[in-house]
Design a protein that fits this description.
The protein is mostly helical. It is built from 14 helices and six strands. It folds into two domains: 123-261 and 358-449, P-loop containing nucleotide triphosphate hydrolases (Rossmann fold, 3-Layer(aba) Sandwich); 263-346, no CATH class. It has helices at 2-27, 39-81, 101-121, 149-156, 181-185, 213-220, 233-250, 264-298, 304-309, 313-316, 358-365, 379-384, 386-397, 420-441, and strands at 126-128, 133-135, 139-143, 201-203, 225-230, 374-378.
């Protein structure tokens, strides 16, 4: 703005000087030329005036060009400094430097060297605790139950660059978070070589479907990598059912109150009913309550049969079943984000359907972690080509290739084939959920269709 004012002042002064010269010239006595009849002096004066006028026009154009360029530069500076529209930008001042450029560069290199030394002696998941160094996992197998997590963990534990743990399923982030980090790290191999640290991992397949695990890991292990094992949801549900029968046989002394479940067919149909209630039950109840109020205000009669429709399905639909946790559904407005429904119960057969709904569980975790931090593994691939899958896992974790020797099945439970009619019911039930998963991960897993 100051530059523009100076330009206009300069233009005014220049025009004033030229005008004064014209005025002085016009007042000078005329010299007569006997040969020109007095017209020579007039022509000369007219020529001078026109020349001066042309000079003024040229100078005005030049000043206008300078003014435009100045305005452009001014606007650019204002925009860059945030001073447009009345907002003043920061004042540019030459801050004093206390060191010369060479010293500053040396200082930068020294700081980088110190950081690199810390990384070498203290890996990114390690920290000092009570005068010792403890390390948290670099990777976790988060699910799913009966999808090959035991097999994968067993062979990864044989890799020389993977730290040993004393227990596969630690359940820290879902059940024992209140015990603290010190309790958690006691199950991992102590740090032996800080120069070549091993990767630390664990495998708790119930992490994926717990509503609190993702947030807890986000605050504790933000840069960890996650491996998600997934199996055809129909087969996974059946495998869990037979696993629960075996678990009850092996733990009668520890859990005498747990009874054997109903038939697989009955349990599946009941859980589908539970999930449908949990998903839509509360919304339907609210709609029916609104309808009841409308009828009452309109004076319309409500018979006993209609009165049954206005009862909350959370408390009435499942009272005749042998599970005791349906009351949890009263606190559940979404099946996977809130409450304990579909996450925990006192029965090992619980969640045969819910734990197979991979899309809903993974999609929730994407509120906390990007897809790049996940490796999704088909159980069928691990079963058919274990060495190929372990190469993928090694590449994902940054591990060198290792010869694991001969592969043997782990924690497999034999079972009877599924009834064809029930299988088709499950195939139809899981189909839309699987398709959402395929779109999310941009991958067709090729399960029952």
């Amino acid at each position: 703005m100051e530059n523009k004012k100076l330009l206009y002042i300069a233009l005014f002064i220049f025009v004033s000087i030229v005008g004064f010269q014209i005025y002085v010239t016009s007042k000078q006595p005329q010299v007569c030329n006997n040969n020109g009849g007095g017209t020579g002096a007039i022509d000369q004066q007219q020529f001078i005036i026109e020349t001066l006028q042309q000079t003024i026009r040229d100078q005005e154009r030049a000043l206008n060009d300078i003014s435009k360029k100045t305005n452009l530069i001014y606007d650019t500076v204002q925009e860059a400094t945030g001073a447009k529209n009345g907002i003043r930008g920061p004042t540019q001042t030459d801050a004093p430097y206390f060191t010369n450029p060479t010293d500053r560069h040396i200082q930068k290199l020294q700081i980088e060297a110190r950081i690199n030394k810390t990384k070498t002696t203290l890996p990114n998941t390690c920290f000092p605790l009570d005068q010792k160094t403890v390390c948290l996992p670099n990777f976790i197998v988060i699910g799913a139950m009966k999808a090959g997590t035991t097999f994968l963990d067993f062979y990864l534990q044989r890799h020389p660059m993977v730290a040993k743990h004393t227990k596969k399923e630690l359940w820290f982030f879902n059940s024992y978070y209140n015990k603290g980090i010190e309790w958690y790290v006691q199950y991992f191999e102590p740090v032996v070589s800080l120069e070549n640290p091993k990767l630390i991992g664990e495998a708790t397949p119930f992490y994926i479907n717990n509503p609190f695990t993702a947030a807890r890991m986000f605050s504790t292990l933000r840069n960890a990598k996650f491996i998600m094992m997934m199996r055809d949801p129909v087969d996974r549900a059946l495998s869990q059912y037979y696993f629960s029968l075996k678990w009850i046989d092996n733990n009668k002394g520890l859990a005498p109150h747990i009874s054997y479940p109903e038939s697989f067919d009955t349990m599946i149909r009941e859980e589908i009913d539970v999930i449908n209630t949990c998903v839509r039950g509360n919304q339907e109840y609210i709609k029916k309550q609104d309808e009841k109020k409308r009828r009452e205000l309109a004076g319309e009669p409500i018979d006993e049969a209609a009165e049954e429709e206005f009862k909350n399905p959370f408390f009435t639909l499942h009272t005749n079943k042998n599970w005791t946790f349906y009351k949890e559904c009263a606190r559940c407005d979404k099946c996977f984000q809130h409450g304990n429904i579909l996450h925990t119960s006192g029965h090992p057969s619980f969640g045969m359907i819910a734990k197979s709904l991979y899309y809903e569980q993974i999609d929730y975790w994407l509120d906390f972690f990007p897809l790049e931090q996940f490796l999704f593994v088909r159980y069928e691939d691990l079963n058919d080509r274990p060495e190929h899958v372990l190469r993928q896992v090694e590449e994902f974790l940054g591990l060198p290739a290792f010869d694991y020797g001969q592969f043997k099945a782990k924690n497999a439970v034999p079972h009877e084939p599924m009834d064809p009619e029930l299988r088709q019911l499950l195939v139809d039930y899981f189909k839309p959920h699987n398709e959402k998963l395929y779109r999310l991960l941009n991958r067709d897993f090729g399960w029952s269709k």
